[in-house]
Task: structure prediction
Amino acid sequence: MRIRYLPRANHRIRAKRVKVIDDKGQVLGEFHIKEAVRMAREKKLDLVEVAPNARPPVCKILDFGKYVYEKKRQERAARKRQHRTVARGMRMSLRISEHDYQVKLAKIKEFLEDGDRVKVTIRLRGREMLHADLGFKVLDKVISDLDNISKIESPAKREHNFLHVTLLPDKKRS
Result:
C-alpha cells in the first residue's frame, strides 16, 4: 500500500528558513533549515514538512515512520467508508411480455435498493425502428413503476437503434 502524498523530511526540505513546531505542538519560531534539522536530531526525531505552501513552510518535529503509518491507516479507513456506485444495465425488448417485464422490474428494484444506478436499454430491430414511440412507452412504464424508489438521472433518449434511460436510487423516498 502506498499513500498518495509523502511529505518531505529532514534534508529533503527545500526551503532555507522554516517555521518549527515541536513534538508537543508548541510553535518554536522561525529557524534556518540546518538549525531545525539539528534540533530534531537532538530529540532523535525527524523534521517533517506539514505545510509546504505556507510562507515560510511549516515543519513539525515528529517520528516520520509513525507519521506515515498513521496516514496509511487514515487512508484505509477513508476507503472503507466510501461507497462506489456501480452502473448496472438492464436490457429489454420492445415486445416484452408482462411476466418478463415484472421479473426485470424486480431486478431493477434490487439494484436501486443496493444503491446502484441502472441504465435501462431497449434495442430496436428491423421494423421496430419505425415504432420507437412504443419503446418510449415501455421506458415510461418503467419510470412510473419505479417512481417511488428512483429518480431520473438522464431522460429517455434514442441513440441509433437503442433507447435508454438512466435511473438513480432516491435516498429520500425509500
